[in-house]
Amino acid sequence: MEAAAAPAPALLDAFFAGPRHHQLRPAAGAVAGCRSARLQAQPCRAAARFARADWQAACAILASNSGGSGSTSPDAASDGRQPAPRVNGQKPPPAPAPALEAAPAELDLVPVSNLPRPLSISDLSPAPMHGSQLRVAYQGVPGAYSEAAAAKAYPGCDAIPCDQFEVAFQAVELWIADRAVLPVENSLGGSIHRNYDLLLRHRLHIVGEVQLPVHHCLLALPGVRRELLTRVISHPQALAQCELTLNAMGLNVAREAFDDTAGAAEHIAAGGLRDTAAIASARAAELYGLQVLADGIQDDAGNVTRFVMLAREPIIPRTDRPFKTSIVFAHDADGTSILFKVLSAFAFRDISLTKIESRPHRHRPIRLVDDANVGTAKHFEYMFYIDFQASMADVRAQNALAEIQEFTSFLRVLGSYPMDMTPWEAAPSSWSSRVDNSSSSRQH
């Protein structure tokens, strides 16, 4: 008996002194009423050094030494049994009434798989994939083209309308939305400069892009005829994209800018304006109960708007699919060779540029330069936005940016993201084709 009990002190010392692999399950009341009890049931990080078999062996020795009763009474000592040791300074429970023969003690061990999992950043802000229930902010009201772009980028998302571009940026920064989908350029109207300025002001990252064909319609209240119209309202970009077609239709009416296309349709429906038409999508006509006076009134059938998806954290760049990277840089020193050096850094490595845009520096739009001959001259200081077809995981792109950083005073990567490679079919412009057909018939 003594030979079997001899290893007990060494095993127990090693167990109680070292990290625990398992601890006893707390009482049900303690777990339900105290958070600390639940936290104490977690295993230590260094528990991998102790096997479960070693702990069960120590428990068996404990049970054999205590006789299965855990008694510390003088009667137990007189029977030759060793008193049960104190666990973590806790006094052992009192001995039960004498029985015929105590059954072996059963220890309720807590399985590692049932322990509570600690919170992580993914619990606070899940990293959603395409098709999941995302909260996506966009500028405009339901029926806007930005809403359609959000649905194309994230099918099944929860679209959140915002009245301004600035609000969409802040919605993502304040964790109200997971993503933002905002337009940056149109094939006819050019760049949306406001969003380029906001990209520099905010710390969001571009995580993707989506290209959406734009199909404009002329909308009015039911029963309104074109000859009764006195004005047409829509977003400035939409008005510019339909200018030639409106002239060909004979609509020499006032054209007023509105916040967005769908908002213009909503304004007509809410105010009952029978002398005003809106340029918006066919979906906006369905939502606000308007009729389509003319379909496909854009000047060019290949009218496409490029949107970018913004998030709080960047994505990991890859090389297994086409990627695009957007950067912005500036330089304080004088000279016209800076832009040439930047373009040379890309050309030397055979990296194609898809866009280059210059914008005046918002904080220092005017710089004073002393000239001994003509006095003081005023010049603009510019920020340069560049999109190039390469991933930041590509060594060529890394070397190009390292070279550019040597002779620029400011360089920031706005995002490295997958390119939109989905094919699209341009919707034919009914009015443009009608004008072309009439012109060709007159020529013959």
From TrEMBL:
**Example GO molecular function:** prephenate dehydratase activity
Report the pathway entry. Answer: Amino-acid biosynthesis; L-phenylalanine biosynthesis; L-phenylalanine from L-arogenate: step 1/1
Catalytic reaction list? L-arogenate + H(+) = L-phenylalanine + CO2 + H2O
Could you tell me which residue ranges the Prephenate dehydratase domain spans?
135-312
Q: Quote the protein name from its UniProt record.
A: Arogenate dehydratase
Concerning PANTHER family, the annotation shows: PREPHENATE DEHYDRATASE P PROTEIN (PTHR21022), PREPHENATE DEHYDRATASE-RELATED (PTHR21022:SF19)
Q: Which organism is it from?
A: Panicum hallii var. hallii
Q: Where does it reside?
A: Plastid, Chloroplast stroma
Keywords in UniProt for this one? Amino-acid biosynthesis, Aromatic amino acid biosynthesis, Chloroplast, Lyase, Phenylalanine biosynthesis, Plastid, Transit peptide
Q: Which GO terms describe its biological process?
A: L-phenylalanine biosynthetic process
Q: What is its EC number?
A: 4.2.1.91
Subcellular location, principal = plastid
Q: Which GO terms describe its cellular component?
A: chloroplast stroma
Question: What biological function has been recorded for the protein in this entry?
Answer: Converts the prephenate produced from the shikimate-chorismate pathway into phenylalanine.
Compositionally skewed regions (Polar residues) per UniProt: 66-75
Among InterPro entries, the record links this protein to: ACT-like_dom_sf (IPR045865), ACT_dom (IPR002912), Preph_deHydtase (IPR001086), Preph_deHydtase_CS (IPR018528)
Region annotation (Disordered) maps to 66-99
Identify the domain of life: Eukaryota
Domain ACT: start-end pairs: 327-418
